[in-house]
Description:
The structure is a single chain. By secondary structure, this protein is mostly helical. 52% of the residues lie in helices and 3% in strands. It folds into 2 domains: 1-224, Hypothetical protein, domain 2 (Endonuclease III, domain 1, Orthogonal Bundle); 233-287, Orthogonal Bundle (Arc Repressor Mutant, subunit A). Strands 1-3-2 form a 3-stranded antiparallel beta sheet. The longest helix has 17 residues, at 174-190. It catalyses: Hydrolyzes free adenine bases from 7,8-dihydro-8-oxoguanine:adenine mismatched double-stranded DNA, leaving an apurinic site.
Amino acid sequence: MPGALPLNELAGWYRASARDLPWRRPEFDAWGTLVSEIMLQQTQAARVAVEIDRWLTRWPTPADLADAPTHEVLRQWGTLGYPRRALRLQDTARAIVERHGREVPRDVDALLALPGVGDYTARAVAVFHYGDRHPVVDTNVRRVIARAVHGQGEAGPAKRRDLADVEALLPAEPAEASVISIALMELGALVCTARAPRCEVCPIAAACAWRAAGYPAYEGKRAPRQSRFAGSDRQARGTVLRALRGVDVPLTEAELAPLWPEDEQRERAIGSLAADGLVVREGGSVRLPH
DNA sequence: GTCCCGTCTC
DNA sequence: GAGACTGGAC
């Protein structure tokens, strides 16, 4: 087992170099933290940063979002991507109102039970807002640990085991553990990046097992190649939903047809959007849910 | 064109 | 464990 990470160097680097992001402001409450973490699941921080304040101004509490018309929630979600997250966020707001007395739960298992909240998001809220001690493991953290601790260039597919691995290297004190978790994420986002790591400015380069081994090429399993977006069902779904966000009336199949001329794929896209609850078919028309 | 990268479903 | 799911950056 390689030596321990220099945690003091890492924490010091974070304090000096962290980006000034809205959700790191001290006045961000538990709800704001949860909303921002859901948005950050699939979307770059810079894009979330320009949307989060507008969202929280409109729906400052779970009760406000629970009562909102779903079509307005989808419109406000805009082009953040993966709009099923917006539906699940509203479902989560309703669950918080109904099951948790309008307060975002602190307990990790209660958070995990909320729709759209998985291993990363549940612990991010418990750690970054409530200050509890848990491993917060996203892809950045897994890559940093893979390199610095295990001497591997890449992390390979996510495993449950990763949580225990990270937990083992966190300081015992919850506040210190929280800083290390956020610092590992920030290091992976800014310095220990996937494609062009900037080892010359890395605060833990001297202890990095991958660097010490001479940057061996990664031999393990890789995530499968992502299929093409152009011409995909994903693109067709996005095209239909974008059109519906832009109007406040249902669109007929005839109005949608020119936007995605291939009939079979357009129908499949509308059908899968309806199955997800993102659109409603009514007669020969398609609309956003009320 | 390639990469990004958490949750859910199967 | 594998694949679906968006839109934008590079």
